[in-house]
Design a protein that fits this description.
Number of helices: 10
Oligomer: single chain
Helix content: over 70%
Structural class: mainly alpha
Number of strands: 5
Largest sheet: 3 strands, mixed
Strand order of the largest sheet: 4-3-5
Order of helices and strands: EEEHHEHHHEHHHHH
Radius of gyration: 21 Å
Distance between the termini: 57 Å
Shape: globular
């Protein structure tokens, strides 16, 4: 900090899980294992989809981009969180804090968009199977992927422009394990109403609109499934169950943390939900898709067998 007419904050102190200091080592080891497994599992999915021609369908291509999104959010949050947990608390420069917040927001919006286009892909495959290859062609596939990435980084950058202009001249302690939007705004001595309005609009347009879109597609999917034979019904449910489980987990935590009133939640409860959203969900995604997808599971087993045979 330096002083002139007022004190300007140049760094923040992250407290992490300071109320759970007795479990510091356990939490550190748990997060280390989860972070390592998350990176390894998602890299494995990307490698399998990229290297095998049988996985070049839209569903698997979307899945590989979802894995890349999970890698971004894990690599952005986990290293600093591990440092905070290990040391009890840790400082982070203002610029690094804002950068971490930007990539967290961008990856969150990116994941919302990818889950939406994946539900649209399942809708076309189940409700309009005869027109699927015509509608979901390579051009539309590329447009949807580009749109997801641009939406994530552009919408977040709009909010980021307002955050960069904020002044921080008071307390610099963030009672969290990363730089989240709400605790950061609480420390600003500027008027944050514009940022809050912009963030609320973005949350409404991106998160809730896409959640309703996913719900609408699944209503159509279930309606179509119920009209089919038992064999086709089981296959369709199996195809959609993995995606639906990921959607419920991801949007469930998002709605509770950022949409519902935060006054009713304790700080530790919000930290736990943030931990679920930033550490558990990125690991949950590849596990669900791997365990529920026979083709990916068999490919992984064959790769491991070939490696063991080579040794």
């Amino acid at each position: 900090m330096h002083k002139d007419n007022h004190t300007t904050v140049t760094e923040f102190i992250l407290l992490g899980f300071h109320n759970l200091h007795n479990f510091q080592i356990v939490i550190f080891l748990l997060l280390t294992i989860m972070f390592t497994a998350t990176i390894a599992a998602n890299v494995l999915i990307i490698a399998i989809v990229t290297a095998n021609h049988q996985f070049q369908s839209p569903m698997y291509i979307f899945l590989s981009h979802l894995s890349l999104s999970d890698i971004i959010i894990s690599a952005n949050i986990a290293p600093k969180a591990l440092q905070v947990i290990l040391l009890g608390k840790s400082t982070i420069p203002l610029g690094d804090c804002i950068t971490q917040l930007y990539f967290f927001g961008a990856s969150a919006i990116l994941e919302c968009c990818l889950l939406s286009v994946m539900s649209y892909d399942r809708y076309l495959a189940i409700c309009k199977p005869l027109h699927y290859t015509t509608i979901m062609n390579i051009i539309l596939l590329r447009y949807l992927i580009v749109w997801c990435w641009l939406a994530g980084f552009i919408f977040t950058w709009i909010i980021q422009i307002f955050i960069i202009r904020l002044n921080f001249c008071g307390p610099n302690i963030i009672d969290h394990f990363f730089c989240d939007l709400v605790p950061l705004l609480e420390l600003s001595c500027s008027d944050t109403s514009i940022v809050q309005i912009e963030a609320s609009i973005t949350a409404m347009v991106i998160s809730l609109f896409q959640l309703f879109f996913v719900m609408a597609t699944y209503i159509c999917i279930f309606n179509s499934i119920l009209k089919t034979s038992t064999t086709r019904r089981q296959k369709a449910f199996s195809t959609c169950s993995s995606h639906l489980a990921v959607v419920c987990t991801y949007y469930g935590t998002i709605v509770i943390i950022y949409v519902s009133p935060s006054k009713g939640h304790s700080l530790n409860f919000n930290k736990a939900l943030s931990f679920l959203n930033t550490a558990v969900t990125p690991l949950f995604n590849p596990i669900v898709y791997t365990l529920r997808n026979k083709e990916i599971r068999e490919t992984i087993i064959n790769v491991l067998r070939s490696k063991i045979t080579a040794i």
